[in-house]
Amino acid sequence: AMAEDIKLGIINLDRILTECTPGKEAQSVLETKIKASKVELEKLKSELEALKEDLEKQSVALSQESKQEKALEFRQKYAEYTQKVQESQMAVAEEQKKILQPIIDELMKVVIEYGEDNDYTLILDTKNGGVAYAGEDINVTNEVLELFEDAWKNR
Predict the structure, then answer these.
(1) Can you give the pTM of this predicted structure?
(2) For the chain, is the Cβ count within 10 Å smaller at the N or the C terminus?
(3) SS3 129
């Protein structure tokens, strides 16, 4: 493409994802799942706090052995809680990907079609800084690959 033929566009893919109907529906589904896991995590956190208070209140009255048992119980509960938090975060991320990926795939098809139909050279995503669409005539991968192969052989 000659310099005067270049046509650039920008797009905010995140905005499209949050404002489009399937994006809103996906967000709603995700929020429901997040709330459910938060309820479970809050319950565990309350149990942890109660256990800690118990330990602090009874500290003076408890024998050394009982203190150690309670402390161990607290550490186990705390480990269980942190593991659940991590599992919950991973589950949400997986769910988000599962729900959003088909929407993103379809959106990218539309972006590519729009880029081709409207003779764009390049469409950049303003939010993520990536290339949303690039016309094939500006792709220099093959040429650079050949040059690199030669350079590598002749080093």
Answers:
(1) 0.66
(2) C
(3) coil
